[in-house]
Amino acid sequence: MLKKKLPVGIDDFKEIIENNYYFIDKSMLISELLDKKSKVTLLPRPRRFGKTLNMSMLNYFFNIENNSENKELFKDLAIYNSDQMKYQGEYPVIYISLKDIKVNNWDLCLNKIKLLLEEEYSKYDLVLEDNRGSQENSLLELSKFLYEKYKKKVIILIDEYDTPLVTAHSQGYYEEAIFFFRNFLSAGLKGNPYLEFSVLTGILRIAKESIFSGLNNLAVDTILTNDFKYFGLTESEVEEMLNYYELNYELEEVKKWYNGYHFGEKLVYNPWSLVNFASKKRLESYWVNTSDNSLIKQLLDKNDSKVLDDLKAVFSGNEIEEVVTENIVFSDLEDVDTIWSLMLFSGYLTYDKYEISEITGAKTYFLKIPNYEVQTFFKNTFIKEYSCGRTAMYFKMLEDLYKGDLDKFKYKFKELYFSAISYHDGGDNEKYYHHFMLGLLLTLGDKYIIKSNRESGYGRYDIALEPKDKNNYGLIFEFKIGDKNSLEEKAKEALNQINEKKYDIEMKNNGVRKVIKIGMAFSGKNVAIESIID
After folding, report:
1. How does pLDDT run across 384-442, given as a tens digit for each residue?
2. If 0-12 CB within 10 Å is exposed, 13-18 middle and 19+ buried, where does residue 298 land?
């Protein structure tokens, strides 16, 4: 039997229904919105989890334009037999998506916003005046026109409201952007007498004082609460899709790759990855390659010791305990603690549980990497940073280390190190080289338990990698700083320290049979390495 086509990259609800694409019914989201019916509802979810398709569905359901034609789109969906169908086609709708506003300066950003608004105005043969005030008040003015035309209040749908702000922050024009959007959203959503209700989607819940100042009628539902359960795919929905496309034999591998996102009390799959997998029938990374991930990379580039220590834990499959802030303030992005909130809401981390402090009331979440697809993203991020584009050599270097081929490892390491380090980096700061080596080795977290600055024997080693398979080599690194003429001596000193202080005793007590001991000495772009297998 000929199978339905999969809607890869299609997020227009009408196109999917009319062309009989495979569709997972999320229409009862409409019922939930009408039951709760807050004046303004903000639904932050990770990208590619169905936000735009759901917003398109809301538009076709409520829009008074072409209402009879649009009603046919819902005849085979759950909402069709509910009492809420009486609201179908009853409202004028303003629907704009800001997901493609990703430019490198404010003038271009403002121009793209203007073009979007002009397109919405032109649907009603209106002309948007070419001045800042008209653009900031455009939602309010268009609401008034539609109310006067249809004698009904207006629904405003804004998809990916935060995309221009995230881009503005990374490109250096955030202050101009936040000033505009604060006025733009306030005029349209706060005290608008022509507004029935509004729904906004995005990735982040940007702090009220940053953009939603004075908006007292805002209801927010994040992945931590998940009252609106129609984003992402449930286990039963995934099983039904895999059975339909005769891929059910892949269920366990699909779980490993794409499951694991905790939305409220539910575990969900990444829908973008599932649709692509069912289409291409290959288990690979789809979701992490659909964005430039600029905020995540910006924070990872700080090379902060706490960030590296925590990433070391999650790479090894462990959880980390972090206080999560639901309200993202962009000025706080200079604080590395914000990285965990950002990663959670963006979909790079998930959580198993949380604890509430009896004293402060703060919520501490137990965070982890959700699945293999996201783990590969982190690995690739570190690989790009530490290989300087020479990824093939990087992988071969780690393979040589894993196999205990130390001569080949040393040669490749020196080649990569020379490319990665500037003469001005590091200096006499041993911590810098420690962080560099830790970042370079983090990608081995699935095969080793990575430890840093831990006691063993008669002292504290710098870095140790204990193999999960005890038949493989353990690895212990000790680092020294020297000048160009003393590096060989310092490297030997580091290796002797590993032996004399018996840093390998803990590993051997845990059943590891052989340990590779590596002493390294650094001076700018120069490095000396001494090693032995014991």
Report:
1. 766 777 888 888 999 999 999 999 999 999 988 887 775 445 556 778 888 888 878 88
2. middle
CA 17 from chain center: how many Å?
Answer: 29
Within a domain: 432? yes
Dihedral sign for Cα 297, 303, 304, 309, please.
Answer: positive
* Continuous segment of H or E residues that includes residue 475: strand 474-481
The DSSP output letter for 91 is: B
Question: With contact defined as beta carbons under 8 Å apart, do 157 and 52 qualify?
Answer: no
What length is written for the chain?
534
Evaluate whether 341 touches 325 at the Cβ level (below 8 Å): yes
Report the domain count for the chain: 4
Provide the residue range defining the domain that includes 267.
Answer: 235-289
Q: What angle do CA 197, 198, 204 make, to 5 degrees?
A: 150
Task: State whether 270 and 303 are in the same domain.
Answer: no
Same domain, 337 and 463: no
For residues 390 and 419, is the Cβ–Cβ distance under 8 A? yes
Euclidean distance between CA atoms 230 and 234, whole angstroms: 9
**Beta carbons within 8 Å of 120's beta carbon, 6+ residues apart:** 94, 95, 96, 142
Asked if 122 and 255 sit in the same domain, the reply is no
The string of pLDDT tens digits covering residues 305-346 is 777 778 777 877 789 998 887 787 776 666 767 778 888 999
Q: How far apart are CA 241 and CA 247, in angstroms?
A: 8
Please list, in sequence order, all residues whose beta carbon lies within 8 angstroms of the beta carbon of residue 487, skipping any fewer than 6 positions away. 521, 522, 523, 526, 527, 528
Are residues 269 and 370 both part of a single domain? no
Enumerate long-range contacts of 143-149, CB under 8 Å, 24 or more apart.
Answer: 143/94, 143/188, 143/192, 143/194, 143/195, 144/194, 146/92, 146/94, 146/194, 147/92, 147/194, 149/92, 149/124
Give the β-pairing of 195-202 and 266-268: unpaired
User: What are the Cα distances from residue 236, in Å, to 11, 159, 232, 397, 497?
Assistant: 22, 27, 12, 43, 56
Can you give the pTM of this predicted structure? 0.85
Kindly state whether residues 298 and 285 are assigned to the same domain: no
Considering the domain boundaries, does residue 7 fall inside one? no
Same domain, 109 and 212: yes
CA 431 – CA 463 distance, rounded (Å): 12
Q: Are 355 and 412 members of one domain?
A: no
Q: What is the 3-state secondary structure (H, E, C) of 161-185?
A: CCHHHHHHHHHCCHHHHHHHHHHHH
Residues 186, 272, single domain; the answer is no
